[in-house]
Design brief:
By secondary structure, the protein is α+β, with helices and mostly antiparallel strands. It contains one helix and eleven strands.
Amino acid sequence: MSSDLSPMSRRAVLSSAGTALVAGTLTACGASTSQEPEAEPVATTTAPPGPEAEVVAAVTDVPVGSGVFLDGKRLVVTQPTAGDFHAFVAICTHQGCNITEVEDDLIVCRCHGSKFALDGVPVAGPAKRPLKSRPAQARGADVVVG
């Protein structure tokens, strides 16, 4: 039994079918060749901590316009303006490295140079997503995190 297609024709047919399959898959997965601008990262707002919230620091331990890294809690607590407290899981959103410091008004990841504003939004480096936030607030002389 012989085929009417030559070896070259079969190759061309299979190649075209493969190309069509890949193109269809990319289209279905939402691949785009247009260069759409990336959405600006936005810090998420969180509800206030509930009654089960844990005391993590004294209000006086968190400088206004800066923040502190709490090693035992793997948290970063910031106070961008007086009385406005934020808490973040101390894990970089770029590749999951541990964040271990706050320098002046920036939360810094030393692994790849990502830097975050005191509201958790990335401002430099490869990280594109904000830090994961936790509810935080002052209760009397304490900062509590839920």
